[in-house]
Write a structure and sequence with these properties.
- The protein is 65% helix and 9% strand.
- The chain starts with 16 loop residues before the first helix and ends in a 5-residue tail after the last helix.
- The chain has a four-stranded antiparallel beta sheet with strand order 1-2-3-4, with no helix packed on it.
- With 422 residues, the protein is of the alpha+beta class.
- The protein has helices at residues 17-30, 41-51, 53-56, 58-73, 113-179, 185-220, 250-271, 309-377, 383-417, and strands at 81-88, 98-107, 278-287, 295-303.
- Helix 1 crosses helix 8, helix 5 (113-179) runs antiparallel to helix 7 (250-271) and helix 5 runs antiparallel to helix 9 (383-417).
C-alpha cells in the first residue's frame, strides 16, 4: 500500500538532489508494507476467482461437456426404447388366441449428423474455455481498479494525518507565542481552523479507504489490499503507435469461439434434417387357439422419419441469426481492442509526463516552504504567507503521490488492454 508522508518542515533541498530526495522519500514510503505481508495482485486474483460464481460452476460445466462428448461418440443417437405387447381373444371369442411380444428399438445417427454433433461439442468446449478466460480477465480489471483507488485513498489518509500533526504543532507554538505577546490571537485561531480542516479531510479519507477495503474483502476474502506494482509487459508504450493485439487475447479468443460455435450449430442444423431413424428387433410367442402349439417369431423393423420445413426451417433460421450476431461481435471486438490499447498507451504517456511535472512541483514547493518557514520563525514573514506555503507544499506532495499511482494505474490498464493477467 502507498504510504507517502507530507512534511512542511523538510530541510532545504539544494541543487539536483532535490528531485531525487523527493522520489526516494516517496519510494521508501509508497512501497512500505504493513506488518502482515500483503498479497500480490496475482494471489488476490486467485482468491477472488475461487469466490466467483464462474469458478464454482467450472467442474459441473466440464462434466456437462464430457457427457455431451460421450453421447456423440456413441454408435446410437439416443437412448434405446424397450416395449412389451400382449394380444388375446379372451374378451370376445375366447378360442385360446394368445400372443406375447418383446421389442427393443435403437435410434441411429442420420448421415452426417454425428460428425456435426461432435464438431458442435468441440466448439462448445472452445467457447467454454474462452468464456472462463475472459471472465478471469474482467475480474483482474476490477482488482486493478480497486487496488489503485485504495492506494490513492491511503496516500490521502497518510498525508492528511501528517498535516494534522503539523497543524497541531503549529497551533501549540502559536498559543505559546500569543501568551508571550509575540503574535495576535487571530493567528492562533487561524491555526485552529487549519487543524479542524485537516481533521475533516482525514476523516473523509478514512471513510473512503474503509469503503474500498470492504469492497476488497468482499471480492477476494483477503483483509489486506494488494499493492499495485505491475511491470509493463510490452515496450511499445513509449512509441507513437501502440503494440498490436496478441492472437491469444481472451476477448478475441472468446469472440472467435462464439463464431466457431455458431458455425457448428448451423452445420448441425443443416445436417440434422429429420428425426433420427431407428431399428427395432422384436421377439414374439404366438398361439392360434387352445389346441395349437405355440410358435416363436422374430421381427426386424426400420423406421425412417421424413423431414420437412416445419421442423427444419425455424432451427436453421435461428442458427443463421446466431451466426450473424457472432460475426458482428467478432468484428466489434477486432475494432475495440486496438482502440483500447491505443487509449491505454496514450494514458501511460500522459501519466509519465504528469509525474515529471509533479516531481518538479514537489521539489520547488518544498524549497519555497522551507525558506518561508525559516523566514516566519525569524519574524520576516507573516502567518498567512506561511500557511499558503504549507498548503502549497501539501498539495504538491499529494499531487506527486497521486501522479505516481496514476503511472502504476496506467501500466495496469495497458496490461489489461493487452489481455495480460497479473
Amino acid at each position: 500500500m502507498f504510504n507517502f508522508s507530507y512534511s512542511p518542515s523538510l530541510p532545504l533541498l539544494r541543487n539536483g538532489l532535490a528531485a531525487a530526495l523527493v522520489l526516494s522519500l516517496f519510494a521508501s514510503s509508497a512501497l512500505a508494507q504493513t506488518a502482515d505481508q500483503p498479497p500480490t495482485l496475482k494471489q488476490a486474483l486467485d482468491a477472488a476467482w475461487q469466490n466467483s460464481s464462474q469458478s464454482r460452476s467450472l467442474n459441473n460445466r466440464r462434466s456437462e461437456l464430457a457427457a455431451k462428448e460421450k453421447a456423440t461418440n456413441s454408435w446410437i443417437s439416443g437412448e434405446p426404447v424397450a416395449g412389451i405387447a400382449h394380444r388375446t381373444d379372451r374378451l370376445n371369442k375366447n378360442e385360446g388366441f394368445r400372443e406375447y411380444e418383446a421389442e427393443i428399438e435403437l435410434p441411429l445417427w442420420n448421415p452426417g449428423v454425428r460428425n456435426a454433433a461432435q464438431a458442435d461439442v468441440s466448439a462448445q468446449r472452445q467457447g467454454f474455455d474462452g468464456q472462463f478466460a475472459l471472465a478471469r480477465l474482467k475480474l483482474a480489471g476490477e482488482l486493478r481498479a480497486l487496488a489503485a483507488s485504495a492506494a490513492t485513498a491511503q496516500v490521502e489518509l497518510d498525508l492528511n494525518k501528517r498535516k494534522l500533526q503539523d497543524a497541531n504543532a503549529l497551533t501549540q507554538d502559536l498559543l505559546r507565542r500569543v501568551k508571550a505577546g509575540e503574535n495576535a490571537r487571530v493567528d492562533a485561531l487561524q491555526a485552529q481552523v487549519l487543524t479542524q480542516q485537516a481533521q475533516a479531510a482525514m476523516a473523509q479519507a478514512e471513510g473512503q479507504l474503509a469503503r474500498l477495503q470492504s469492497q476488497w474483502r468482499s471480492l477476494t476474502g483477503l483483509t489486506t489490499v494488494a499493492p499495485l506494482e505491475e511491470k509493463l509487459v510490452t515496450t511499445a508504450a513509449n512509441e507513437t503507435i501502440a503494440a498490436p493485439i496478441a492472437a491469444d487475447h481472451p476477448a478475441l479468443r472468446q469472440a472467435q469461439a462464439q463464431l466457431s460455435g455458431a458455425q457448428a450449430k448451423l452445420a448441425l442444423a443443416t445436417a440434422d434434417k429429420r428425426d433420427p431413424m431407428s431399428v427395432g428387433l422384436a421377439v414374439g410367442r404366438e398361439r392360434g387357439n387352445f389346441a395349437a402349439a405355440g410358435e416363436t417369431t422374430l421381427r426386424i423393423a426400420l423406421r425412417i422419419p421424413l423431414g420437412g420445413d416445419n421442423r427444419n426451417a425455424p432451427r436453421q433460421a435461428a442458427a443463421k441469426a446466431e451466426l450473424d450476431t457472432a460475426q458482428a461481435e467478432l468484428d466489434a471486438v477486432q475494432r475495440q481492442l486496438p482502440a483500447e490499447v491505443a487509449a491505454a498507451t496514450a494514458e501511460l504517456r500522459a501519466a509519465r509526463l504528469a509525474q515529471t511535472a509533479a516531481t518538479e512541483r514537489a521539489r520547488l514547493s518544498t524549497e519555497v516552504q522551507t525558506l518561508i518557514t525559516k523566514s516566519w520563525r525569524l519574524g520576516d514573514s507573516d502567518l498567512p504567507t506561511r500557511l499558503r506555503a504549507d498548503n502549497e507544499q501539501f498539495e504538491a506532495s499529494l499531487s506527486f503521490a497521486k501522479a505516481s499511482i496514476d503511472v502504476q494505474r496506467a501500466i495496469a490498464n495497458l496490461n489489461q488492454a493487452h489481455g495480460i493477467l497479473p
